[in-house]
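Minutes, structural biology subgroup

Action item carried over from last meeting: produce the structure token record for TECT2 protein (Lophotis ruficrista). EB confirmed the sequence was re-checked against the source entry. Recorded below for completeness.
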Amino acid sequence: MSGPRVNSFFLGSSSGVNFSLVLSSIDEETGKLQLANCSGSKRADDWNLDVTRGMDASKVTVTLTRNLQLCLPNATDCCATPLCVVETLQVLACRGSVMLAHLLIQAEIYANSSFTGNVSENATIIPNQVFQPLGSCPCNLTAGACDIRCCCDLECTPDLKQLFNGSCFTGVFGGDVNPPFDQLCSSQSMEYLPDWFPFLCVQSSLNNTPFLGYFYDGSTSAHSVAPFKIPLQTSPGKLFTGYRQGDPIMTEENEYFTIPQQSMAGQCVGNAPVAYLQNFDVRCLTNLASYKEGLPHDVRINSGTGDFIRQNVIYKTITDMGKFITESESHHTAEVLCQNVTFAEDYTFIWKDKNIEQLNVTVFLGSLCNGEVLTQRFTVKFLCLKSTNAGELFVNPGYQVGQPVRAANMNASDTFGSLNIWQPAGRGLCTSATYTPVLFGLDSLSGCILEVGINEDCSFLRGNVTEKLNSLIEATHIGKRDNSTYSDLNDWVEIIRLDPVNSDTNVSTGNLKGICPDIPANLNIRMIFADVGAVQGIPLRQILAVQISYSTVIWQFQCGLNCENSISFLPITASVQFIKVPAQPPIPMTRFQINYTEFDCNRNDVCWPQLFYPLTRFYTGEPYSQCLAKGLSLAFLVLLAAIMSNPWFSKVWNSSSV
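Output recorded by EB:
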């Protein structure tokens, strides 16, 4: 055993059986273990014996009662050496004087490495970290004990160091607190030494290392802030300066105004802050057991100017439960528990400039019973108030992130169109998948699974897949802005379609049955947009072009041992990508900038075109008069050096000196 406790079991009936513990010794002459008899007790020196009797088995526990800490100076009842206990024990099971069984235990127990002794009251003098390292052995973390792999630990005996001598900690943590630095003349740490290194290197002792002073002088401690709560403004007289797009809306208690929203993982987060000028429409699944009420509707919000606005709440009752109750786990009975809960909440923020003028909330209530699954819906919409005080509301003419992209079918009498992606449900099959509109600014990827048989005709499969993908795009044009009118064709951009490659080759017959090439299984929708202006400080985003293309795959039937009358699956996907481009094309690079890149200040550390920048009016580092004086002095010195380096100057100087 290597620990202070060991367990064993005595099998069979323990009725009339006496258990005893004997501390055995070795005969010095024969070197054999001395035999024990049944006259022992349940305690031997520092060892105790406990027996838990059972019907067919008894648990036998041997415990060491002595202290296993290493001895400190002037301490008793401790371990003088790391190998604290080396003893041999025998556990005997006797009925009367007859020995039924015996257990031999060889105990080799080392002292604990944790320190539990009395802490000295003498104050530890911490050296100034600017002039010398804080500790010469940073890996020495345990007082009064040897730290494994810490070869600079003075508490480690030579015998213990042999166990980890080849695996010692290196670097500063291992005790090398003054490593040679690159600027040292005797240091060869740099792979490529420059030619001028011997002239500029430093001759210094390692005690005067540049690593001294690399420490954090912590004078303050981090304080905990409640979640979704920011510190109050402490500056007197400082007013709230208004909201910017994306800022969280604050309440009267200086907390975030929260509404349930979907996280990146797709789950609903109940205490998600509402961002200014960002619309959303989310659905969250819940049941009666996990239902939680949201933020109370009597909470007032900060308008952006320091004033507080009360919510205008209207309560309505849901009559058609089928739109919200998605499934029922059991039939309703008279004993089923039901509760009046919130089915949907519709928030309308009326804003102007950087402030919120009004908040209207419509709450839809209904009865939710135990065993039912509720699909809650939360919508947030920001409407802009005109500055003419006419009270007329209008939506920002440009697209905002999260708004549905407008589509139109100009070839039909009813010009209303749609641009959707899949929203799979259940098993993810295309037959049960529903549609959800494409939201502006949100790249997305969706898909569904199509069931295909082994005898499927390839031409029919291509047509079926193409029909499924085209059902997502029932439009010929996309609205440039959110307020595009159907009567004005200039408000729309035509969809550029790159149709899939038509392949009339049917290779699903013969030896290649179950393989179809050129299946257009991926629909790619790319939209190019730009910020073409701003409305009351909010960017006006406009769609410039839309392209639709297809990616083909080779479909192969997948089956197990028996392929007859089995069905394989073909996943088809639709991806949406929004690409932002500048509203104006960038200025093309000149031929000089393309060929002579060494003079490009944006791609080089040395910028020769700005050599005389300090002499220009654009330099504001110091007064212009000082810059001019320094520049003239420098020019005079350069001119003087040029004159003195000329050969005729030496002749004139020699002739004048004679």
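Discussion: The chain has a mean pLDDT of 79.
Next step: EB to file the record with the rest of the batch.
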